[in-house]
Specification:
single chain; about 80 residues; mainly alpha; two-stranded antiparallel sheet; 3 helices; 2 strands; about 50% helix; globular
């Protein structure tokens, strides 16, 4: 379903960074984050903690996924285009 919502800038930034890091759309990322929180509220799952590095970059908990040089190059190309 398509809908419009107003969210705080920091929440939007986090959702966008999360979506980019996981290679999904913003809508899918927001849906996943809401479902994770809902599961955590029901005691089913631990909430992932979002932190920032000392330089201010968003950091996600280790997931076992590796960021390759090719992924970085593709992201840089996407930013330039």
């Amino acid at each position: 379903m398509r809908t419009n919502v107003n969210i705080a800038d920091d929440a939007r930034e986090f959702a966008m960074a999360y979506a980019h890091a996981k290679g999904m759309t913003l809508g899918d990322a927001i849906t996943e984050l809401i479902r994770e929180r809902q599961s955590a509220a029901n005691g089913k799952q631990r909430i992932r903690k979002f932190t920032r590095s000392s330089a201010g970059f968003p950091m996600f908990p280790p997931s076992g996924r590796k960021l390759t040089t090719e992924q970085v190059r593709k992201a840089e190309e996407d930013e330039i285009a």
